[in-house]
Amino acid sequence: MPLALLALAIGAFGIGTTEFVIMGVLPEVAGDFGVSIPTAGLLVSGYALGVVLGAPLLTVLGTRVSRKKMLMFLMGLFVVGNTLSALAPSFGVMLAGRVVASLAHGAFFGIGSVVAAGLVAPEKKASAISLMFTGLTVANVVGVPLGTYIGQAAGWRVTFAAVAVLGIAGLLGVARLVPETGRPESATVRTEFAAFRNAQVWIAMAMTVLGFGGVFAAVTYITPMMTEVAGYSAGAVTWLLVLFGAGMFLGNLVGGRFADRALMPMLFTALGALSLTLLVFTATAHDKVLAAITLTLVGALGFATVPPLQKWVLDQASAAPTLASAANIGAFNLGNALAAWLGGVVISAGFGYTSPNWVGALLTGSALLLSFLAAYLDRRTRSTARVVTGSTPAESAPVPARH
Q: At what angle do helices 125-138 and 306-316 cross, to 10 degrees?
């Protein structure tokens, strides 16, 4: 494994921690600033909005510099945002710090995916991407629970100060370990946007919104589901989320490994199994043991879709992958916001705390249908290309050099 992937994973760990740890210390933050919990919830939605907007914006602005320099700038921005949050004298400043930190999120994962894929052989690209995202999944297993504990024991400001230190470690790692490859070949805004002329790029991002959104439809309301339906105590929810994070970690690694061998079959399997699992969750949520097992599976299957989805976007936008890759990270967060809203709608309509699982299953099932469409269009494009060139795959293959 190239050590540069470790540097990217450290950065991803810090970003993943700051994204989700706010949920664990939200009551403490609200109490210190004298605002309501719903008002404090703006720290979550503001971060998500910053990711969606920051991913394409900063990626476009970074087309004039090398990817390494851009990654260093993004980690610096992340450090500034979390430092601002840790020192915030008012809620408004805290919100500004969250937005500043979030601006680095989408562009870091988008550019980082391109860098990670470029560090290894073509047949190992999805695995390399999954190794970078391992930092994000480990954050949910270790960073978020530990950050929540520190925030409750020593104060939430200490938590964000610690996350800023993680950002510094990521910055130094990128500076030391990521190779300087120069500016991207397609270092113009026009060329980067040209990638979006490919319908497959839009289909891939729609699969991301719907597929991963299905996970968040259920997980956003996991606390009331586990306490009111399964019968767990409020304190047990933290450990249930650790199980969910462990599932994410394993699913991410498996998804990356098998996507390198057979990308679309892996995506079909993960999306189909995820949709079925979310349906089953409606029933298993009534039993403590089965609910815990199902929650772990949702995390595993949900993140098993991440490496193949990200690699599919890179493949379809191969001439100018950076902006498309970053936009796909924004699509993950757009899916999270959409699914959370839909889950709240069905709960408010009186369908109960397990009803978001049905929403999630429907969203994921829609992503599965889109993946079939994407595979069909890809086969048709390849077939047309063979007809135009008048060659078969074997005939068009390069002839080995003779020595």
A: 140
* CA distances (Å), origin 291, targets 66, 233, 284: 46, 14, 5
Global confidence as pTM: 0.75
Residue 209 placed within a domain: yes
Residue 211 within a domain: yes
- pLDDT tens figures, 314-335: 777 766 677 777 777 778 878 8
SS3 per residue for 3-50: HHHHHHHHHHHHHHHHHHHHHHHHHHHHHHHCCCHHHHCHHHHHHHHH
Q: Are residues 174 and 209 in the same domain?
A: no
Which residue is listed with tokens 């999630």?
A: 360
- Chain length of the chain: 403
Instruction: Report residue 47's pLDDT band, with 50, 70 and 90 as the boundaries.
Output: confident
Q: Among 361, 363, 368, 360, which residue's Cα sits nearest to residue 276?
A: 361
pLDDT of residue 172: 95
| Number of domains present in the structure of the chain | 2
